[in-house]
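During the reporting period the student researcher (J.K.) took over the structure-prediction task from the postdoctoral fellow and processed the backlog of single-chain submissions. One of the processed entries is reproduced below for the supervisory committee.
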Amino acid sequence: MKTLKNTFFVLLGFALFSCASLEEPIELVSYNGSSIKQFTGQLVQFTASFEVKNNLWVPIKMKPGSFEIFVDQQKIGNLYIDEPVRLRAFKASELQIPARIVPEPGFMTQLYQSAKKQDVQTKISGYPKVGVFFIYKTVPISKETKLQPAQFMPNLPIF
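J.K. obtained the following structure tokens:
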């Protein structure tokens, strides 16, 4: 009986992870802003707020991990998510994610140059551990998008 139960869980795991990647059924509904707790040359701590919808029939969990952040193809730092993220099945979830960025040297100059542009190309990439139930898998994530800096820094002085 125990072997049958173990076989069922193994087959369930293979069925879940052999399907399409977990990125596709998860959609970002809205970005609701962020609040900065600490901003120094060596550390930026903040809490970001998102509304995300999970279109899968199972809840998804992501363990704490790290990502690399690029602006206009130049690395500006590493993003660390220190708490696990949980998404309920077939529901939209309001997420408050505490995170920190350890910036690269010269990141302020790069961000200021990018803020003067109409559009900037941003990229976030990493290998977080994502799981369903108690089965976890390392999933490569690489998202690129164009942003308008005026949305995030509307009152930036131009010299």
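The committee noted the following: Residues 1-12, 14-23 have pLDDT under 50 and may be disordered.
J.K. will present the remaining backlog at the next meeting.
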